[in-house]
Model the fold of this input.
Amino acid sequence: MSPALAESSAALREVVLTGDRPTGPLHLGHFAGSLRTRLALQHQHDQTILIADLQALTDHAGQPADVRRHVRELALDYLAVGIEPEATTVAVQSGIPELAELTVLYLNLVTVARLVRNPTVREEIKLRGFGSSIPAGFLAYPVSQAADITAVRATLVPVGDDQLPMIEQTNEIVRRLAHLAGRPLLPECRPILSKTPRLPGVDGRKASKSLGNAIALSADPDEVRAKVRAMFTDPGHLRTSDPGRVEGNVVFSYLDAFDPQREEVEELKRRYQAGGLGDVALKRRLEEVLQSLLAPIRDRRRAFSRDHDAIESLLRSGTARTRATAAGVLRDVRAVFALDPV
Ligand code: TRP
Done:
C-alpha cells in the first residue's frame, strides 16, 4: 500500500461492535452471515466482539451453567475461524460492570411503550411464548444493547436485519442524551447488513438449535455428510431427467453461500432447471465444499481447545481493554445526569 493510501484508510478507520448471545454453538449460518464479515473487518477497523452473556440470561436465567459454558465455546469458535486476538477485541459483557450502570441510566430515556413496540422484541416474545410473563430484563434488553454499542463509541454495527430496531433504539438514546447534555456526546451508529441472505436449516426451515437443523462449525465429518444427505431439495425432482427447482432448494442456498466456483454453480443451476442433474451428484459437490471449509476450522478448534491460556488471555485482555473504554463513556454519561463523584 502506498503511504498516501495507508493514510487515507487510517482516516476511515471506524469503531465496529458486534455481539453474540452465548446460547449455543456457532453454525454455518453464522459463518455466512457474520463471521466472514468480521474476518474481513478486523484488519480494516477497530473491532470488538462482545459475548453478551447478560443478554443471554434475559431468556436463559434458568440455565446459567449452559450460558457460562457457551462463553468459552464462542471464544473457541472465534479463534477457530481465524479471529485474531491482535486484531479483534473479544470481551465478555458480564466482566464490564460499567455496561450495567449505563443501562440503568439509559432506562430513564426510554418508555415502556417504546420497548413493547420494538418489532424484534415483539417477535421474540411471541416466539418464546412468554405470554404476560415477560421478564423485565428481556423487555429492556435493547437498552442494554444500546449500552454495549455506545460503551465503545461504536460507529458501525454489522448485523442481520432482525437487529435493525436495536440500532434505531440506540440512536434514539444517543439523541436524547445529546439533548439532555446540550451537545453531542456519543456518536450515532450505522448498521452494516450482511449481503448473504439468511441461510436456511437443512430442512428448509429457519435454522435453530432446538430443531437440530443447522450444521455447527464444530460438526464432525460424519455429521456433515449425514446433514447434507438429508437436505431438502425439490420434492418434485424425482428422476435425474426431471427439471428441478433452484428457489427454495437448500443445496443451492448452501452452494451459493460457500462454493468458491461461482460460475460453475450458475452452470449447475442451469443444468438442474433443464433436467439432467441429479440430487446425489449435487449433494456430493456440496459435501466436498463443506468438508474442505470445515476441516481447517475443526483442526484449529481442537488445537485451541487444549490451549487454555490462549482462550483465557483472549477473554481477559479483551474484557479489560473494553472496560477501560466503557469507564470513560460512563464518566461522561454520569456527568449528564449530574452524578459527579461524591
Ligand atoms: N442481540 C444480538 C443477537 O441476539 C446480540 C448482541 C448483544 C449485539 N449486544 C450486541 C449485537 C451489540 C450487536 C451489538 O444476536
Q: What stands out?
A: The longest helix spans residues 308-336.
